[in-house]
Batch of 2 targets.
Target 1
Amino acid sequence: MYNYPDSTGHFGQFGGIYMAETLIPAVEELRVQYLRYQNDPEFKAEFAYELKHYVGRPSPIYHAKNWSDRLGGAQIYLKREDLNHTGAHKINNAIGQALLAKRMGKKRVIAETGAGMHGVATATVAARFGMECIVYMGAEDIQRQSPNVYRMKLLGATVVPVESGSKTLKDACNEAIRDWVTNVESTFYIFGTAAGPHPYPMMVRDFQCVIGNEAKIQMPEMIGRQPDAVIACVGGGSNAIGLFYPYIEEENVQIIGVEAGGYGIASGQHAAPLTANAKVGVLHGNRVNLMQDENGQITETHSISAGLDYPGVGPEHCWLKEIGRAQYVAINDDEAMRAFHDLCRFEGIIPALESSHALAHAAKIAPEMSKDKALLVNLSGRGDKDINTVARLSGIAL
Amino acid sequence: MSRIQTTFDALKQQNRRALIPFFTAGDPHPSLTVPLMHAMVAAGADVIELGVPFSDPMADGPTIQRASERALKQGMSLRGVLNLVAEFRQQDNSTPVVLMGYGNPIEAMGWDVFAQRCAEVGVDGVLTVDFPPEESHDAFEYLQAHGIDPIFLLAPTTEDARVEQVAKLARGYVYYVSLKGVTGAGNLDLSAIEQKLPQLRKHIKLPIGVGFGIRDAVTAQAVAKLCDGVVVGSRIVQEIENSNDATVIANVSALVNELRLAINQA
Ligand SMILES: Cc1ncc(COP(=O)(O)O)c(C=O)c1O
């Protein structure tokens, strides 16, 4: 039986709690409180209520028939996380952590964000539960995801631009950790992906598992069986692990994580640590495959999508790769763009650029498969936030 | 006996407190690192904490972040830092040198190779900010095998049971982080330090150094009254940042000397 992480937060050699001493008691308190509420009937009922009435779950599964027909092979099904309130899977986790913060008496929440979807989700739940909210965002991401910056402000959050390092997601994480260490008693850090120090990878996974749990009921209702493969994009890995985890024990279902290939693995300009077999290292509280130079300095990544532009990846994905249960591949910027446009034109759905990576991989393998095969792709978010980026790449001024 | 223990034993006999300056190796330039170390010793430093620059210094405030960026731009690396310590040892075989930084550059080199190199070049202690005792088993064994002291942090948030755990693993001295925050923060609370130290002393028999947020001679003196060593980092790095190549040695010497005199009065 697959049963990870162990009690110290390790998935084999991966994971752990690599944090400065000041924060160790805080992550320990979080671990204890999460274990306390994880199976508490009242907590579970409140979480389920919020997911149903506030987020709008369950999210449907949609058969992308037009697109499947054009590709001429396997049928592609989409898990519609883009239809959630705030437009992405991120809200599932943000609500779970906010309910925990409420029980722990924390009135101030902080978050890091790349694409801005986790920032918007956190700002939303902070407004909903009456908490002060500070969101750290890389200055470069503020440029490329400007609609989300204004959304966060409308929701009452303070958005702090981060000017250090590569000015993207990893630097926003650094700055959020600096805030947490300074305000550790008053503040709950709502971490946005299935990475970071234990218990975050486990807790975020558990909150996101609603995706896979629903799909496991919905797919048999639609096609009488489980899909042949489940596919999701992997930044830190939260939407992916939310879909994958309930399928780990379904041995006939292939699990495929799609990383950001940027300009191509060979170019070195990508954000695909697993596909590129990046060396194992330590950053942001956990031991994972990490893009770094020969001196152990973290290298700058590149992806068209801000939400995937991160040099590491959650520890459970490293583990699933190591034990061979999941496979990880990379999709380049231009391939993701093509899938983005195809879904807009053939299905009337504007996908997030992050999700477009998962879509592109499905489009790559579907034609090689027979028409009775089924691929389930996690459509992790909607693409409204990306229209400026797409327009710019198409040479159009909005 | 290790250089760290020899140094603290001697200070204790003279009823003096250690002055422990920190700065980032390679800032403003690798060729100035060894001269700066010698100048600090001449001006009254007892132990030198040499920062190993890292691309993602999560526990550091803006001053030391900028120092890391400058050093990395100059091509500084862990290998380079070790070579600088070897160069320092050609003229100074008694002042303890402690490397302070983050785990990943060491992971990339491998703890076994790193510990061996530390022993070869004359590093005495290693403080890895993001490696708490829970994750330090391998690191600890390799360092111990080569006679290098693992230096651990304790914080205002550290509870009694953890202090006991750290006491078992720590060697050399223990570094008490004097505030909740990053390096260079301005919210140091003397009375909180005064309250915490007796709690630490119940378990910690090693010397206790206190650092983070000590920005002037008056504070250094007040902190020195409470502990065995005072660590001053951001203030020194700021002095380096505000100097040029011609003035940096004299300015840093003057600052270290001022801190020395203040601590001597404690
Ligand atoms: C829509 C969407 N999908 C995916 C991601 C990537 O994150 P994760 O790998 O944690 O799902 C993001 C992150 O911002 C996102 O906004």
Target 2
Amino acid sequence: MPLELAEASLLLTFFNALTEGSTYALIAVGYTMVYGIVKLINFAHGEVYMVGAVTAWWLFVTPQVPLLAALLLAMAVCAALGLALDRVAYRPLRRSTRLAALITAIGMSLVLQTTVQLTFGAKFEAFPETTRARVLVDGCPARERPDPAARAVVTLGLGSQPPVAQPAGPTPDGWVPVAWTVDARTSEPGGPTPGGPPGEGAADAPTSAVLWVEAAHVRRLQGTPPALNADVLAGAGGERLKLPLKDVLIWVAAAGMMLGLHLLVQRTKVGRAMRACALDQTTAALMGVSVDRVIAYTFMIGSAMAAVAGVLYSLKVGGNISFRMGYYPGVIAFAAAVLGGIGNLKGALLGGMLLGFTKAFCATYLSSDYDFAACFSVMIGVIIFRPYGLLGRPGATRA
Amino acid sequence: MAPLLELDQVWAGYGPMEVLRGVSLHVAQGEIVALIGANGAGKTTTLNVISNVVPVRRGAVRWEGAPSSGGSIVETVRRGIIHVPEGRRLFADMTIDENLEMGAFLREDPAGVRDDRERMFALFPRLKERREQRAGSLSGGEQQMLAIARGLMARPRLLLLDEPSLGLAPIVSQQIFRTVRALNAEQGVTVLIVEQNAHAALELAQRAYVLETGCVCMSGVSKDLRDDPRVRAAYLGE
Ligand SMILES: Nc1ncnc2c1ncn2[C@@H]1O[C@H](COP(=O)(O)OP(=O)(O)OP(=O)(O)O)[C@@H](O)[C@H]1O
Ligand SMILES: [Mg+2]
């Protein structure tokens, strides 16, 4: 049974929201764990996410390391980076004012961005696999089309500037038109009517559009979809909606890592030491806990989780890898940590999900111009009524 | 033979303030020694210096004759110096069991730790009934019991107790003093105790030091101090 576009769009938005939310939660955990123990906002944490993505991308593309190995290596690189950040930038300032550490954090962030820019350039890169299924609607880049069909395509995350192709047979650079019928009921009343593609009567079909797809991937849209690009098929070709595997990968990774972290913190000796340090460092030391070592572990764990977020999210969206990519996710994840209750792991998950849903639904149903604004509005709204965040307690940051 | 712990002309303080001005004292293996003095005299600071929470500015702290100041807090814990801090400082969000586990953090013998925990529960049965409860939800007296039990979980060689009876009902503080005496007699734990209640302290300890604005102004066998007119006037309220 074909899904109607409105349903498909809702579902896809929901999937996107879960994906964004998982990504933010994975990053937010790093902010919140470090804050919980050191009472420091590690503003370079967004850059750790960026370094994770860049590292895995480089490993995958240049020495052609298998993807899983690239992911694991990126985690290791980021863990080492987190450790180095703590050693070089934060530990020497542990007894000075918080402002000093904050300024250092911003400085480290700039150092990391610049280093990556100088090393890898300023282009936007992508994992090869994800760039191939680029789609045009009626020969226009999908993002510029104001109708629901185009919006659905944008929702699919396929709007990354494809080359403009002529709507007549395969183009020299390998683009093929694929007819795509859209149920009229999904058009918004009074909304702009999409123009039919040349050579097709716009009268009989309620709405129709042409997707331009790279030749190698036509089959994916017409018949048996490969799992990884199945999200393309929502609403297209009358296919049943399939679970988008790359999204599922992020959800599973996020859920698994959050659960693992929860068990680590609640059930193991290291976790108990972390909680003890978060509550009262001096007393933890009086029990024999090496506080500096616990802080180092905290930086390493948070950084490795940010690496996972960076790699998997880039794998999904494609074309986002650059030295600047850490800024917005970093800021949103920070907001998520604050609104969930900074220092609180469940709060990071809750805050990340809340902002992921806010961003995805705002992008689909309002405008993607305002998605970040919507996130910050939600955060401010929550903080006004719950100054310590959703799950935070005033005592939680007390020494 | 060198005493277990020795402070030799120790100076320490916070920022521009000198709190300890040449404190000298010693504690021998197996003793209970009390440290008494007015509020702000520097008793807590003395214990903090011993456990490396506060650095020594001048002078030396020696453990079994070897210098021990200047290192980390954890090093003192490794030596067996266990500091039960003023105001209990429990991990309020952790359960009683977890607090006891924290006390045994450096120990590598799970079976021994388990035995010791049962021993603590035998010593303080009230804790056993509440072992899954958050430490923060205990009453003041129960919290103090837990703070001491947590310290004992480390198998201390020297137990530093900072005002263990603070805010407790007389019955409860007596119980705590009895426990300390029993630990000393039966397990040979050496104790340096800071106490507001000079009566109780001089009763419990074999020797005592009287601290006044950062200096040891009197010291000696408890019985002699109890009979000293100055101590009677200043600390025993007579
Ligand atoms: N962390 C600190 N920073 C600055 N000054 C401190 C600090 N801790 C203690 N002081 C000061 O050092 C002096 C001695 O404090 P200390 O806690 O050692 O006294 P005490 O003998 O334990 O008193 P009490 O019986 O009230 O516990 C006091 O004047 C106190 O104000
Ligand atoms: Mg004191």
